[in-house]
Amino acid sequence: MSRTIGVSLSVFLGIASSGMADASTFTVVPFEFDPDGTNLVAARWKTGLGCPSTGVVPAAPTTTPFSDPGCPTTDSADRGDQGLLLAKSGPSAIDASAGATILGVNGITLVEIGYDLRKPDALSDPRGSHCGTGSPGFSVVTQDGTTHALGCQSPPPIQTTAGSWIRLRWDPSAARPPITSPVKSIRIVMDEGPDAGPDNFGVAVLDNIDINGTLVGRGPAGPGEKDADEGHGGDQDHHFHFTNSTSRPETSDVSFEDRSQGIDIQSIGAARTISFSGSCVNFVEDAMLDGDPGYVLTFGACDLSALSTPLLPQIGSYSIVLSGAQGVLYQKSGSMTFGSIQIHQP
């Protein structure tokens, strides 16, 4: 098994993939092409599925920061460690595919293209994500009407890193046929199923989609993400994670753990109410206590970072009240010693 670690793309492209370009230039939108309704393909961005870097690992005292060597640079705006899942669960011959359309590419001159793939060591390794002759591959249409193909293994990519992920890049001149005209559209297509080797898996996880050195490691913001509040952290004995959205209250969620008392609280379903006061948010949800439903929690969090000084550093504060048929069963409030709070008032 050969490895091509440390090869610089600038040798043949003349540019460096720093990952520091504005990822908002391009948007990677998943699609599922299934004209016969087979329900055998899936495509989506998912939090926690991407290549972890020090930029997205929570600074929790109980979690050692981790950065996979397969993604030395990443989309700095990806705060949720998102990854792009592409799957085909039936034979390759079925007329169905999973993929993603890359928006914002019309008119560009393509000089670099690629992605990070969740696969250990090398693209020829049968372990991990599918990497076949054609899938997952790029389909590039240029403004002269020509369609150009770049498959995972054909033409052979340049592999620049190894780890639990590998970084794959293609010279556009190696496409079939070579790309020499300005771009009209670009899609990523996964149309090979479990019958295709060398992995016979039919699933691929991608991250940091690279277009001319700009890395996109997250999906497009949905209606509930533009006004979403989120936070994680706590103190030595109390850890929490929350998200909420006034436009999509069904996406709101709270997890809270009191390690000193062995208490675990988890919200269920949509937020009943969401309210704001300055840099604080409060919301009410149905909840489970140690896995048992039938409770109501009131959770609040405040972003105090604007008040932080070198002599008095501040992150934020939290409060939680859990009630049941017998009244208040648990309540706690405190200042955060780690984590972050982000409040987006409507």
Quick summary:
The chain is mainly β and 346 residues long. 1% of the residues lie in helices and 44% in strands. The chain is elongated.
What does this structure look like?
The structure is a single chain. The chain has 346 residues and is mainly beta. The protein folds into 2 domains: 10-216, Jelly Rolls (Sandwich); 228-342. Helices cover 1% and strands 44% of the residues. It has 1 helix and 21 strands. It has one helix at 10-13, and strands spanning 27-33, 41-47, 82-88, 97-103, 113-117, 137-142, 147-150, 158-159, 166-170, 183-190, 203-211, 214-216, 228-234, 238-245, 253-258, 263-277, 280-289, 292-303, 316-324, 327-335, 338-342. The strands form 3 sheets. It has a 9-stranded antiparallel beta sheet with strand order 20-19-18-17-16-15-14-13-21, with no helix packed on it. It is elongated and about 70 Å long. It starts with 9 loop residues before the first helix and ends with a strand.
SSE arrangement, N to C: HEEEEEEEEEEEEEEEEEEEEE
- Kindly report the average pLDDT value: 88
Q: Helicity range of the residues?
A: under 10%
Widest beta sheet: strand line-up: 20-19-18-17-16-15-14-13-21
Provide the β-strand percentage band: 35-45%
* Overall CATH class of the largest domain: Mainly Beta
Q: How is the main sheet built?
A: 9 strands, antiparallel
Which fold name is given in CATH as the topology of the largest domain?
Answer: Jelly Rolls
The CATH architecture of the largest domain: Sandwich
**Structural class, from secondary structure content?**
mainly beta
Number of separate helices? 1
